[in-house]
Every structure is written in structure tokens, then in C-alpha cells.
Design brief:
By secondary structure, this protein is of the alpha+beta class. 63% of the residues lie in helices and 12% in strands. Strands 2-4-5-7-6 form a five-stranded mixed beta sheet. The chain has a two-stranded antiparallel sheet with strand order 1-3. Helix 2 packs antiparallel against helix 3, helix 3 runs parallel beside helix 8 and helix 6 packs antiparallel against helix 8. The longest helix has 57 residues. It starts with a helix and ends with a strand. The relative contact order is 0.07.
């Protein structure tokens, strides 16, 4: 009698444990789904607790605290990033007015009679003003590009959250021939190459590479990459586009280091303290490439820097 009683008691306890484990598993699966929706949807709701198990309740409470901290950190980041963009835009606008006035006065002075020393000083001033103008415009373009991409990213996540699907984020892109845009960009930089005594070694595949891209963005990417090469090349430049659409821009840069190569796409990073560089060119290029589902990276080996680019 006693063995049967013990067996029945053990069976009841086992059944109870199995039922408890089942409901805990079910609760955790539902919580997992809710966590994914909260994070992807970027909303402020709390994680719901399913069941009455105190361990599950404790876990949900801990997750809710971490979600609250995560939202606070995200808000601080967004506010800081927006403040930076606004500051850059405002500074750019504020600098344009005095720069325009300075350019006007320089043109008047250049029309006056002057000694050789004054001509030389005016030439220095003109060069510095042009450099400052270029930096100001680069800051302004950067703030506009980053703001546009941030808005598109927000809209994309909102769309995914509302539709719960993977919509095609191609916008109004058209079928663009990469070969043609690259050739036009190289031709547009001819004068700059000549000034630096650089004769590019160009190897562009005869197979036309068509991708669904924004032509203006693609031209800007090439312009920034080529401008970067002009600034830091030791006197050479090689540009290739292979049969699979992989692009490579390479040049000797003996003073570059591996550590610097890893930072080339960081905002405001410059290889040297060059007065004419904002450190935004490659950062803008990366932003534009990624906005069109492409990839861009840098490699450095035996004194040669390679910027490699491809679009799916």
C-alpha cells in the first residue's frame, strides 16, 4: 500500500512539474516574441508578464529595467547626433555670409594697383579663403546627407514595424551603368590629376555593370574617393572595375599606418593635420554606399592603400 502511495505522489509531483515547465516555456516564448517586437518597433511599451511564476516575473522586471535604460541611452545618442548636425548646418550658414563679403573685397583689392609683396599676400589670403569655403561647403553637404539618410532609416523601420514585412527599400533608384559613371568621374578629375602630375592607371571592364542606384549619389561617392586619393597619394593612382562589378581604387601612401587605415571612414578623421581636409569625404562615401545596400572598405599592404567598393 505504501509503495503505491509513494508512486502516486511522485507521479503527481512529476505531472505538476511538467505542467509548470510547459507553461514557463510558453511564457518565455511569448516574452521572446514581445521583446523582438519592442526592439524592432522602437516603441515605449513594457514587456508583459505571462503566467504567475515568480521567476518569470523577476526576469520580466529585469528586462523592463534594461529596456528603459536602453531607451534613455538611445535618446541621448539621437539628441546628441541631432545637435551636432544642427550645429554643423548653422556654422556653415553663418560662415557663408562673411566669406562672401571677404571674396568681394578681395576682388576689389585685386583690381587696384599694388606692390609685389601685396600681390603675394593677397594670393595667400585668396588661397586660405578658398580652402575655408571648401571646408564650409563640405560641412554643409555632410549635414544634409546625414540628415536625409537618418530620415530614410527612420521611415524604413517605421514601415517594417507597421507592415511586419521586408519591403524593398530601393526608393526611386534607376538602372545605372557603373562603368559610365566611373568614366565620367575620372574625366571630371582630369585637371586635378594633371596638377598633381598623376597619370591614373585605368582598367574598366568592357562588361557593362548595371545596378539599381542613385546616379548622383554614385558620382559623389567616386568624387570623394578620387579626391581622397589626390590628397594622400604618393604620385600614383590605379582604378579598376572587374567583370563582377568589384571596384578598387589604389595608390601608394607610405606614411599611412594600419591603425589609420582602420579609421579612414570615421567622421572628421584625417591622416594628417591638413588644413584643406575635413575628414568627411570617405565618411560621406560610406554613408551613401550603405544607403544603396553596397559595401566599402579599406585595405593597406606594403605601402599601398586600397579602397574597395561593390554593390549588390
Amino acid at each position: 500500500m505504501l509503495p503505491w502511495l509513494l508512486f502516486s505522489l511522485a507521479a503527481l509531483i512529476s505531472a505538476g512539474l511538467i505542467i509548470k515547465i510547459y507553461f514557463m516555456h510558453k511564457s518565455l516564448k511569448m516574452m521572446e516574441k514581445d521583446i523582438a517586437e519592442i526592439i524592432c518597433g522602437n516603441d515605449n511599451r513594457q514587456l508583459l508578464v505571462y503566467g504567475n511564476d515568480r521567476h518569470v516575473k523577476s526576469l520580466a522586471a529585469s528586462i523592463n529595467r534594461e529596456l528603459k535604460n536602453l531607451r534613455a541611452e538611445q535618446l541621448r545618442y539621437l539628441n546628441g547626433d541631432n545637435e551636432l548636425k544642427t550645429a554643423i548646418t548653422n556654422i556653415s550658414h553663418d560662415l557663408r555670409t562673411p566669406l562672401t563679403a571677404i571674396n568681394g573685397y578681395l576682388e576689389l583689392l585685386e583690381g587696384e594697383e599694388k606692390s609685389e609683396n601685396i600681390k603675394r599676400y593677397l594670393s595667400y589670403i585668396r588661397n586660405r579663403v578658398e580652402a575655408l569655403k571648401e571646408l564650409t561647403e563640405e560641412f554643409f553637404r555632410y549635414s544634409v546627407i546625414i540628415s536625409e539618410e537618418s530620415e530614410k532609416t527612420s521611415e524604413k523601420y517605421l514601415s517594417l514595424s507597421n507592415k511586419n514585412d521586408k519591403s524593398d527599400d530601393t526608393g526611386n533608384y534607376n538602372e545605372i551603368c557603373i562603368n559610365s559613371v566611373l568614366e565620367e568621374s575620372l574625366a571630371g578629375m582630369y585637371a586635378a590629376f594633371t596638377e598633381r602630375n598623376i597619370v591614373p592607371e585605368i582598367n574598366i571592364s568592357e562588361i557593362k555593370q548595371y545596378r539599381k542606384l542613385d546616379g548622383n549619389k554614385l558620382a559623389r561617392i567616386f568624387e570623394n574617393i578620387l579626391s581622397n586619393a589626390l590628397k594622400y597619394s604618393d604620385g600614383d593612382l590605379s582604378v579598376t572595375l572587374d567583370d563582377n562589378g568589384l571596384m578598387c581604387f589604389s595608390n601608394h601612401a607610405e606614411e599611412l599606418t594600419y591603425v589609420q587605415t582602420e579609421k579612414l571612414f570615421d567622421r572628421f578623421f584625417t591622416v594628417s593635420d591638413a588644413r584643406k581636409s575635413t575628414g568627411l569625404g570617405l565618411s560621406i562615401a560610406r554613408t551613401l554606399v550603405e544607403s544603396m545596400n553596397g559595401e566599402i572598405w579599406a585595405e593597406y599592404e606594403e605601402g599601398v592603400l586600397k579602397i574597395i567598393l561593390k554593390f549588390l
